[in-house]
């Protein structure tokens, strides 16, 4: 009997009739998957960040469009933009009726403070419009309580609307050298005056975005001489902030000065921040919050 050549013998098939992968083949497949993941995940993260930025920009636009609808229904008057302190001066006539904090205050989670406020009905009570999707800033206390996020990321320009006791004389006591806009018709350059912006999570409290011009009434007048950020813009979007203007359009503004780009520090206080570099960013805010009283006549209707 002639014996078969051992090298020509067939390998016995598995009992189920299916050939399996060798360990080396499995390792190769795993390696390829890991390589693809390392290449794709950064791209996916960038795409997600871009999508969040676009959503944020659209949110600010929806808020300013809601404001314009409010103006049409209220004889041209802008929404109330009251300075809120804790539970003081609360009213649903304000555009947003809450104060963001880093404790467990219900203001951080109570959606009624948005839906029942004056702009709530003008955004169809869609509370997602009030928050940037990139804003997940929480204190240690809030994270420990299982919170995912707070409910508001945006603030209104302090020089717009009735601010209550700070504008009881018709002038904003915080910026007496500038015009306070009580009506939309008083805004001389609505394409340049901002209405809403994405505020830094550590400076956002009420919905009143304020920075004072310390040069008013001084001989210097230069940005950087005693100027300081009281409220900061948020810079989630690669040093950019979503900003809506009084004419209804929104755009990203990119900041250039280092003191403007502050890390999120919810467990400590770092404000105010002195303007120590070129002052380009602070000058931009001053130029786009209002106009100086001595540069343009006040429009009363």
Q: How would you sum up this structure, described in words?
A:
The chain contains 4 helices and 7 strands, in the order αααβββββββα. With 301 residues, it is of the alpha+beta class. The protein has one domain (23-289). The protein has a 5-stranded mixed beta sheet. The longest helix has 51 residues, at 23-73. The mean pLDDT is 88.
Summary, kept brief:
By secondary structure, the chain is of the alpha+beta class. It has helices at 23-73, 112-115, 140-144, 280-289; strands at residues 154-157, 194-198, 208-209, 228-229, 240-245, 250-254, 273-274.
Q: How many structural domains in the coordinates?
A: 1
Average predicted local confidence, pLDDT: 88
Span of the ends, CA to CA: 116 Å
Shape call: elongated
Note the main attributes of this structure:
301 residues, alpha+beta, five-stranded mixed sheet, two-stranded antiparallel sheet
Q: What layout of secondary structure does this protein have?
A:
Blueprint: H1 23-73, H2 112-115, H3 140-144, E1 154-157, E2 194-198, E3 208-209, E4 228-229, E5 240-245, E6 250-254, E7 273-274, H4 280-289
Parallel strand pairs: 1-3
Antiparallel strand pairs: 1-2, 2-5, 4-7, 5-6
